[in-house]
Amino acid sequence: MNCNCRGEPTSSDLIRAGNQLSSLSDEFSHSPMRQWVEGQASRVPLDNIDFNSFSELLYGLFQVTIRDIEINLIPDMYMNVCL
Length: 83
Prior knowledge:
Low-confidence stretches: none
Order of helices and strands: HHH
Radius of gyration: 17 Å
Helix content: 55-70%
Mean pLDDT: 76
Largest sheet: none
Shape: flat
Distance between the termini: 13 Å
Structural class: mainly alpha
């Protein structure tokens, strides 16, 4: 892995992570789990949603998603430190 002196991922790391996410997205789009997720999402009442409710919905969605990505896809990206 390449990193700058602050231990941040380089553009090649981000490109690799983006490619991994793209592959996962393609794989997911053809999986049975996609239909389940679509069914769950269709039950979210968006007709009368306000800003606070929408913010809470996004927070719940991305809180889990980002944590899972960091743990499962790119755990070494933020753990390596440049000397």
